[in-house]
């Protein structure tokens, strides 16, 4: 910082304050008729504020005029003394800055200084209390609750949860609720079938979940075939998806569910062409289990029985009658109620309904040949 002074003296004059470190240099040039004093920290801090010192034109003594005090003065000094004070001041400042960078922090008793290389992993949490959850839930006959106080709709939502523990708890709660109230199965098939069937390709690899899932599917299969008809196609689609899975556990679990469905709903299976095609392809592929795997041969037998058309109850009715176009008389009476006593009243064979024209895949030569080609290697291994 430069502070101008008015002074008279030799070409170079060194001076300092007798009571501090405020130093100054006076340099005069007679040729240029200029005199300037360069000051080093000629400002001093005190309790009363800044004290500004000004050197006035007095010779040969140097007198300091203090703007805020009258007892301050400066004394002239030699060049060696001046630079010695300057160097001491600079070294003192440098040491102070260096020590400030490596100054040890004083800690309180019982506290440790955190390292800069560590990561703070502390988590602050707050407790949130929902008063509605504390209220006691009471089930009704129309809306029963599980042992955890959840309805069937809530349990079906939890069946799609990403957590395995939540899905397992939902499976147990759903099975408990449907076992205690079997009448809920048929009335909630539209919710149960999509929620449960989508777990077959994902829970088959987990033994804990697969056991609970298979037990729940057995409970759902207690529904009548008439109620299951509308949801059977979706259920079979998930089964076939799991049957082509990469993991052997998932394929084995899907095969056990297919065996259960073939025994429970053989009529619905016989009308599903996709199940026949996919199962025959599975038998002819390399992903099928070994022939001595538990329940594998029994599943094949149930599959063949389900698609074998039962013609034992078939009746051939042939009645000759004569109709006179002139008089409109019929020679013999025809009782259609007796002829079609066990038929559906909405089935009209005249317009070729689906029931009258249903043909088993085993009655088609190509399908029968493909099943024979798939089962021949298995029978060869079993017989040998």
UniProtKB/TrEMBL annotation:
GO CC, alphabetical: MLL1 complex
Gene3D superfamilies registered for this protein in UniProt: Leucine-rich Repeat Variant
Protein name: Ipi1_N domain-containing protein
């Amino acid at each position: 910082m430069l502070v101008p002074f008015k002074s008279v003296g030799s070409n170079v004059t060194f001076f300092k304050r007798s009571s501090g470190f405020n130093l100054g240099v006076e340099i005069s040039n007679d040729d240029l008729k200029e005199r300037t004093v360069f000051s080093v920290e000629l400002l001093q801090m005190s309790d009363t504020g800044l004290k500004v010192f000004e050197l006035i034109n007095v010779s040969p003594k140097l007198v300091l005029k203090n703007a805020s005090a009258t007892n301050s003065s400066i004394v002239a000094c030699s060049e060696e003394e001046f630079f010695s004070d300057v160097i001491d001041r600079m070294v003192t400042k440098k040491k102070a800055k260096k020590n400030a960078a490596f100054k040890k922090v004083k800690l309180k008793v019982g506290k440790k200084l955190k390292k800069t290389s560590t990561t703070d992993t502390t988590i602050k949490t707050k407790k949130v209390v929902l008063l509605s959850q504390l209220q006691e839930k009471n089930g009704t006959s129309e809306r029963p609750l599980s042992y955890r106080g959840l309805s069937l709709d809530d349990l079906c939502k939890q069946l799609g949860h990403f957590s395995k523990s939540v899905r397992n708890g939902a499976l147990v709660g759903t099975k408990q609720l449907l076992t205690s109230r079997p009448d809920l199965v048929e009335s909630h098939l539209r919710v149960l079938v999509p929620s449960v069937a989508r777990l077959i390709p994902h829970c088959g690899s987990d033994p804990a979940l697969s056991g609970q899932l298979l037990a729940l599917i057995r409970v759902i299969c207690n529904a009548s075939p008439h109620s299951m008809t509308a949801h059977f196609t979706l259920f079979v689609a998930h089964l076939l998806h799991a049957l082509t899975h990469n993991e052997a556990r998932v394929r084995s679990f899907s095969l056990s569910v297919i065996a259960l469905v073939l025994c429970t709903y053989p009529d619905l299976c016989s009308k599903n062409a996709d199940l026949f095609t996919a199962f025959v392809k599975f038998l002819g592929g390399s992903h099928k289990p070994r022939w001595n795997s538990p329940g594998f041969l029994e599943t094949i037998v149930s599959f063949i029985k389900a698609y074998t058309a039962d013609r034992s109850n078939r009746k051939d009715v042939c009645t000759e009658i004569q109709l006179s176009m002139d008089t409109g008389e019929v020679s013999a009476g025809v009782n259609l109620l007796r002829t079609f006593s066990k038929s559906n009243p909405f089935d009209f064979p005249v317009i070729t309904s689906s029931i009258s024209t249903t043909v088993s895949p085993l009655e088609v030569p190509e399908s029968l040949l493909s099943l024979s080609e798939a089962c021949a290697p298995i029978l060869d291994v079993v017989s040998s």
